[in-house]
Amino acid sequence: MNISDPTETFRQEARELLDQLEAGLLDLEQDPSNDDLINSTFRALHTIKGSGAMFGFTAVAEFVHEFETAFDRVRKGQSKANTALIGVALDAKDHIHLLIENPDAPIDGGTEILVQLRAIVDGAAVDGHGEAAPAVVAAPAPAPVVVEAPKPADSGAKRWRLTFYLPSDALIYGTNPELLIKELAGIGPISVLALSDRIPDLDIIDPEVSYLGWQVDIEVADDPTAAIDDVFLFLRDNMELTLAPLGGEAAVAVIEAPAPVVDVAVAAPSDDAMPEAPFVPEPVVAKAAPAKKAKAAEKAEADKPAATSLRVPAERLDELMDRVGELVIAQARLSQIANSSSDTALKTIAEELERLSSGLRDTTMGIRMVPIGTIFSRFRRLVHDLSGELGKQIEFITTGEETELDKTVIERLADPLVHLIRNSVDHGLESAEKRIAAGKDPKGTVRLSAVYSGAEVAISVIDDGAGLNHERIRAKAEENGLISADAKLTDQELNHLIFAPGFSTAKEVTALSGRGVGMDVVKRTIDGLRGTIDVTTTPGKGSVFTLRLPLTLAIIDGMLIRVGDGRYTIPLAAVEECVELPAGVEANAKGRNFLDIRGSLVPYLRLREVFGLKGQGDEHEKVVIVSSGEGRVGLVVDQIIGNNQTVIKQLSKLHSGIKSFSGATILGDGTVALILDTAHLVASGQSYVERNLGRAA
Amino acid sequence: MSENQEYMTALTIRLEDELFAVEASRVREILDLVPITEVPSARAFVGGLINVRGRVVPLADLRVMFGMERPEPDEDTRIVVMEVDIDGEPTIAGILADKVHDVTDIESASIEEAPKVGMRWRPEFVKGIGKRNGGFIIIPDMERIFETPGGRSTSVAAPEERAAS
Amino acid sequence: MTKTILTIDDSASIRQMVAMTLTAAGLDVIEAVNGQDGYDKATTNTVHAIITDLNMPVLNGIEFIRKYRQHPASKGIPIILLTTESDEELKRQAKEAGATGWIVKPFKQDQLLAVIKKVTGA
């Protein structure tokens, strides 16, 4: 049972609608006459207004109302959705967002935005028409209400006679005369007489049509006109009704004369919340124009397939993951028992259970996985704004939006990516003049991509700007005491200096990127996600920043290996292949641990050494080749035991600093096994290679 | 916290030939010896991991911090699973005990500060020394002991050996 | 017998608010997210009244009412349309399509209950 606050639900809803609105506006800028986009923009505004008013966000409702009115010109084709308009509209969207997050704080800026909006809309008017308020002109209708000359009611009259007949379709359309009469009884004591004069003969009677009339005498001191109007609120326009005081004068007081309805400005909807005034009878002549608009908007919607989704609190997902984790562990223990048993029935069911739990695991993991496109979209707005502010033309390309990551990882990635994109746009891309001088397209390109790579996801921010300036980096690092003047650093090491705390190459502190302190925070955030960040650069051509993150945080397929007496798990997705360690390789190695794998040299690490174990390895050691990003390393183990489903348990602070391990798991026999951090081991292998060969293998 | 003005409710455990007291309210359970998975490259103080009801729990050996001998476990050896604060964060950890005695109340009045000199172990790891039945009970400062190097405060941890095998 | 009200609205917050209001008053509530979903639920469940929003994807409020009124199950079932303005033309269309009544947004919870009481007696 969902017991959350509807106001909070509205807030979440509004946030999503605002995101849609922003995306729609950005798309509209590229395609200004797209009616579908215009209508969906309108619809988003409309919903925010309606719901906002419902939940007490009056400032929001009022602002959006004005926004809607101004934007209405665009909808009617009287104004074009040009860049200036979109710009103001985006500002308006930001304002709405502020209002929703802080409904009580007085927030300025709304009026200016509206003024700007109106100015642009009027200025960009296509036909130069003034405020055309299509008035609904009424033709005098055949008045179904019985009208007599109005005469004031006599104050002494205490009994009233109400006579009415319902419209013929009233019953079918849900009106219940019994309830009407009950309501009338609420006004005062009544006596009711049913009028059967209009009931046709039995052979032609249609049981669903309302033929009956009623004569109701009501005892009440004051004029019951208003109260009776209220009872018949929904029916007034096409029912028959007379009301007259009984006794005393013969004058008949009537409810309403059907005045011709004029001056209803449809373009400016009235602000009244509830219809207090008695319902004025409608002209029967249909008015075509307003209906068509509504239909067009609704048609656009009808073409979209309804997406059904469900909101679930994140804690419930976590609980579900825990349960599945426990199930996997228990199933592993069962499999172990089954393996060493000769009971075939047991073995069969254990296998079945393994298959089922694997499927359940995949499905559950899938629930937490969210396409990275969900955060990519907000960057469009960022680049759009940056482009305007810096006066740089920027082409922003995204690929791999469908790449899925764990929800929690994605949320924590947003800030680092913002930093990186800002950095690329602000410092990486040169101004248009510089680019032309360098023979480049004046429009700079920033590309954001996400792709799977083994057990990781690689997210890259690529720009075709000037690249990292190594001299400047060096100078800055020396200036800030990070390196000594005569320190020898490879290009890669220079590149990595930008992630060091206390470093900044920005000549000026630009308002946008701040002091360039973002980079060390970015690195720390990525470290916290057990990921890595890398940068490669080519002077004059551009830079590539790559984040690598582990794919899942909870349950993976693992390969169980033994080193000495201890058992360890390697994420299977990182494993490329397994080979035997060629005999006599040690003797020939001369301290250089490399394997020849089909022509390429792969460095290897002896896990015994890495773990500080004494003694010799087994006779036929195996090498598990794992990869991370571009690098590979072979891990020498005593034995490869097999594959298992590995429920990842986080290590406590006491052990989380040990780089070789990324977590722990519980094996089928109940013991704990550590999970190897393949990215770190590959990196170790790489630096070993670099130290020994002086270059990357 | 069971420590109030008058007394501290403590679980007494034996390490080597000394009695130690840990806060009873923080103890989750007491286990017989279970298989311990060694963590290569870990500090000797927390060289192992154990499985407690499906949870991976680090195993701490206070004897390391107090420079004691560490004989092989025997049938009296127990693991006290309790909540400790590591750099301010509550965590579940297991403590090896040569023997577990009982839960007892130690009168706060009888707890004295550890003498700065002349004591067998590092004073910064000892919160106080209480008296019971004519003997001494050492009340360890768990927060200090479990502080990670580079953790919150600036106190110096005891020199460690790498996990030898 | 407890009356069941079907509420059709693409806004989760409005649906939630309506459902909370009605269940607190002792009614059962079924929710639908658009006109088509509403039609499916209205024709496969026993409902005693329907509250529907106007602007919804797939099938809007008035389209829903028209479609539903063609189904025999709809006879006598009151339908209340939620509208954002007291647009006379809109009300006329709604009635023509087969709506029983309307509520203008924003509305308070007791206004909602009053209208429900008016058309269902509950």
UniProtKB/TrEMBL annotation, chain C:
Domain Response regulatory residue range list: 4-120
Residues that bear 4-aspartylphosphate: D53
Pfam families according to UniProt: Response_reg
Domain of life: Bacteria
Matches recorded under SMART domains: REC
Entry's Gene Ontology BP terms: phosphorelay signal transduction system
This protein's UniProt keywords: Phosphoprotein
PANTHER family, per database record: CHEMOTAXIS TWO-COMPONENT RESPONSE REGULATOR (PTHR44591:SF25), STRESS RESPONSE REGULATOR PROTEIN 1 (PTHR44591)
Protein known as: Response regulatory domain-containing protein
Organism annotation: Devosia riboflavina
